[in-house]
Every structure is written in C-alpha cells, then in structure tokens.
Amino acid sequence: MNLCAVILAAGRGKRMRSAKPKVLHELLGRPMLQHTVDTVKKLKPKKLVIVIGNGAGEVKDRIKDKSVSFVTQKKLLGTGNALLEAKKALRDTKGCTIIVLNGDSPLTTPATLKGFLNSHKRGGNDLSLLSFTDGSLSGYGRVLRGKQGNVISIVEDKHATADQRRKCGELNSGAYLMAPSIMKYLDKLKKHRLSGEFYLTDIVGLASKDGKKVRAYICPAEEVMGINNRAELHKATAILNNRTVSRLMQRGVTFIDPSSSIVHPSVRIGMDTVIYPNTCLEGSTSIGRDCVIYPGTRICDSTIGNSVLIKDNTLIESSEVGSGSSIGPSAHLRPQSSIGRNVKIGNFVEVKKSIIGDRTRASHLTYLGDAVIGSNVNIGAGTITCNYNGQKKHITTIESNVFVGSDSQFIAPVKIGRGAYIAAGATITRDVPAGTLAISRVDQKHLMDWIKTPAQKSGGKIKHKKKKPRGGKIADSS
Ligand code: UD1
Ligand code: CA
User: Fold this and answer.
1) Would you tell me how many other CB atoms lie within 10 Å of the CB of residue 363?
2) For the chain, which terminal residue's Cβ has fewer other Cβ atoms within 10 angstroms, N or C?
C-alpha cells in the first residue's frame, strides 16, 4: 500500500502563551514537530507534507529535511481546512492512503503507527482513527460508536452534551488513515458557528453516514496526548524521559533517581554505568561502560569512554573523554576538547578546543585554551594559557613529560619542549627547549618596617616593651 503523510502544524497554539510557534517547543532537545516527522518517516511515506501557518518561516527554518514539502494554510480556519490545503499538494499521489497526524502529539511510537496501519489494511477500512480511553481527560474529541461498535462520529469536547461526556470515555487522538475516496468529504465540511472553524473530525460523521467503513484503533493514552499548554508540555517531557531512562535501565544502566536525570532519547550509555541525580545527558552523547556520573553534571553531544568518573557539577560540551579519566568536580570542557586516557582534569579547570594527552594531570584552577598537550604532563594549580591577544587566538604546545609548576602563564603562541620544567610562577613568552628548566621570576625583596608599629600609628600613646628598628631599608631575600 502506497502511503502519504500529512502533519497539521499551522495552528496558533494560543494556550502555550508564547511568541514561538507551538510545534517548535522542545521535548528533550528536539521540537515536538521534529519528533512526529522522525516517527512518521519510519513508515517510509512516498510524500510527507507539513501544513504550516503560524510562524511559517520559523518552522521551515527549524525543520530542515529534504524529504518534507511545506504547504501554507493562508487562514487558520481549523484542522479540516488545514487538510484541504494539503490536498492540493497531494494531487500527484493519486491512489495513496493518507496518514494524517497532529503536529502537537509527539509521543506516538513507530510501533503504534505500524499497528494502526496494519489494522486499517486488514480491516479494509475506508477511514481509521487512532483513539484512546481515559475518562479523566478533557479537551479531546469524543468518539461516538454505533450498536455494532462502528464509529459514527466525533463530537468535540466543547460541543458535547453532558450525557455524551458521561457515557463516552473514548477519545480522538487526531491521527487518521484515509483511503483516497475519503478526501472528497473535505469539501463538504461546514464552518462551525461558535468557533468559525472547519473541523477535520466532522469527516468521520460524513463518511459514516455515506456507508463508508470507519473504524477506530485503540492505543495507550500516553502515546497520543496533545500538547496545548505548558503543563502538558511538562507532562509529555516527563513521559518521554521516563521511556528513555527505563529503556537504559533495562540495558544495565543504574539511575539513582531516574526522574531527576534528564536524558535525551538519542543518548547511549553502556552497562554498569551509574548516573546520580540532577544530571542532564543531551544530544548525541555516548557514555561507555562502568562510568560514574555524579550530581549536577551536564554532558551534551560528547563521547565518554569506559570507566570514566565525572565528578559533581561538571559541564562537558561537544568533547571527547578517553577511558579511565576523571573530570571535575566543577570542571568545564568546552567544545572541541579531546581528553586522552587516564587523564585527570580536576577542580575548577576549564579546557577549550584543546588536546590533552594520556595520563596528563591538571588538577586545580586552570585554563587550557587552544592548547596541544602531550602525555604524562603535570599542569600545576593556577596555570593559564594566555591564548588571546585581543585580536587572534594562538596555540600553546606542551610536549610530553613536561612539568609545569603552579601559577604559570603561557603567552601563546609558545612551545614547551619534551621533558622541560617550568618553575612555579613563570610567565613564559618564548619557546622552551626540551629538557631545560625555565624560570621567569623577579628576585624576592623585603621592605623592612613596611608596616608601622601600633605606637607609631597612634602618635606614641601605646608603649611597647621592645623598640623596633626604624627606617625603610630594602633587604634581599637571600
Ligand atoms: C484536535 C481534534 C480533537 C482531538 C485532538 C487531539 C479537531 C477539530 N479536534 O483538537 O478531536 O481530540 O486534536 O489532540 O480536529 N492546526 C492547523 N490549522 C488550524 C488549526 C489547527 O494546522 O487551522 C493544527 C495545529 O497546529 C495542531 C493540530 O492541527 O498541530 C491540532 O489542532 P489543535 O487546535 O491543537 O486541536 P485540538 O483542539 O487539540
Ligand atoms: Ca491539540
């Protein structure tokens, strides 16, 4: 069966109270519309049309996908009018079954859509709708069935009588499968007097009255919830997060407090890794086996090897960390940092666009930016690569086995040869040859009597037993 897909995404989304189009609000790193696009593409439709209207330009810019055609709904006259606009774009796909989805229901799984499609095919239905049962929800269309269980119509919640509401707990998800013969009813939809809209749901009553075979396929309620406001956005995010975390737990990952770890569906984590509370794992992040990720950590678009410790309050962005390394607490790996194996990046260390070799240690209070550092290097506390001269960024190269004493600065571009020693407190402005010791310090001086005695300050009123020598003589430290 040839399939075409239409996603309705033109609506205003007034209930979100946002300057941004509703369908671009994100669930775990992706706009809700993108979730639906990705899901429906698993059915391999011949054509995928998205109806846009409110914020059309923004939606087009954000959903960059060559397989999608956009159709603009000129006036937002309801879901029925939205599909009518899409009909023109489907002219070249005669004979196709059409799947229609709402752009604000991102939780439907590919498995459910496949089941929906199979039941439509097997039943030889003209029109199928995806429904769910949940007596506690409001705002959804009610599915009214005839005596034989066939669907006769959908009545919108706001137009339903108290009796219909009480008796009918089956709700419309807004997803439909339509044989080509159903599209003609779009032209017959009538504008609702109260709302001024054409309801796509009315197509069900029209087709059923005409003797078409209309059936409903019931799926789990949490898969088809629509997102109309911030509370529903939160609820849907929690459902998706729970799904992701549960899947990872089944694969052998420990979450100490699953609901407080935010994990994007695209994240991969290896067996026996332990994730502490208040952690965010985002984008294309991949974490190996036997790692421990402590609280307050956020990792985005990064690759972490096996047996890595990420200690509390660490941020890792678009970087790589080799196996056996330890990062943090309170460290920041900025984009394009590549950390080798068994490296230690410790307290308050910031690394930016740098390569750090195996077994190198930068344990405290350091900035390494645009640096290429070899293996087995010791970076003392307070070391800074001065990579920026106000105009350009420059590279600091530190070869393997170098020892950098505390509080050193490297004025880039500069290169430190293999095995060199940098004495503490150095400001390195020139290349240091391999195996040498570089010291750049001003000799220490002592200013004698720099601080006056309390007696001198108070004009001689306080008497001291011992008299200190007078004068401001400068003495060498040696
Ligand atoms: C709709 C259904 C309701 C169903 C619910 C499921 C109708 C009349 N009602 O109600 O039966 O239970 O979805 O979530 O269809 N849209 C357009 N153009 C428009 C109006 C809406 O493209 O002119 C798009 C919206 O962007 C949205 C989708 O259609 O993605 C649904 O619209 P929305 O206004 O959210 O419909 P509901 O009131 O939720
Ligand atoms: Ca909706």
Assistant:
1) 16
2) C
